[in-house]
Fold Phosphotransferase.
Amino acid sequence: MTPLSFTSLSHTAQLELLEQLTRTTLSEHYGLDGQAVQMQVQQYEDNAVWRVTPPGRASFVARVSVREGRPAHQQRSEMRWLESLAESRAVPVPGPVTTTDGCYVVPVDVPGHDEPCTLALLHWVPGTAEPPYRQPGVAEQMGTATAHLHQNVATVELSDFDRPVWDAETILLKGHAMNDPTAHQQLGPAGLEALRTVAERITPALQEGGPADRGRIHGDLHRENMISMPDSTTIGIIDFDDCGTGHFLLDIATVLGSVHRIARKEPGAYEHFAHAYLTGYTRVRPLPADFDRLLQPYLLLRDAFVLNFVTAAVPVNEAVATSWGPGRIAGIVASMQDFLAGHPYPGTLHD
């Protein structure tokens, strides 16, 4: 019997199928008893992610790339960088776990699905997601963790690092939101025009900077991908699925923008966080050149990145479509329109 199309299944049914396939893969390739492990779903958007805990053992993270996942060779580059970061011990990260044959990535055959899927297994980073940014010392720790991530580029060469380039061309000019008709419907004519005008205005600034300002970046370094470690003195970083090469300011803007969204209603809270975060960063390495002038363009670039993700996810992921997706699109469009009307973009810092 021909299996049902994977995309025709409900979100819950898709996740149930992927969980069973993951259990089988853990048994066949990692020497774990897949039926005995406890699996706690962490998220299911482009990737299905579980916390996997074998009886009597430490936990792992199982990530199944389902929709437009990175090719296996790019995932291997991600795992090699994570391995390098884990070995350095400068910042806690989820180190990769290889199969019994020494492989970083395993193909997974999903019945009724016409996209290649893969599974990667990583060590679980203990701690609490979304560090309490108001707590004394935490903002500085978040800045220090970001800087150690960027400093790894200067100390460890990965000559075969093959990941996306996150720049104006990739995110704006060739991005999903700018080029896909379904995305245009979600943005609306006014939203699409705002995005196009923003791209024209900020692209020259995004092309500035030399080799010292660019390198391996996380690519999605919002607060939910930072972990307050049990020792309360260290911040870990997780979810490197969007890692690539680009300007270090994109990571910095991503952290700042994600905190601004929750701190903006309390007068002075964001500015206090940002000052402490940047202080922590500069204890490890200098800020990129022309930080004050270029932060705003990179805050805009980050939100264009989010638009690409959300507009691509809404048609295929009912959880995104029925919860936070449309509201996030509307909020970003409104912020871009305000920027074009002469207002500072959310997250911009002032003297």
User: Anything to note?
Assistant: The longest helix spans residues 181-206.
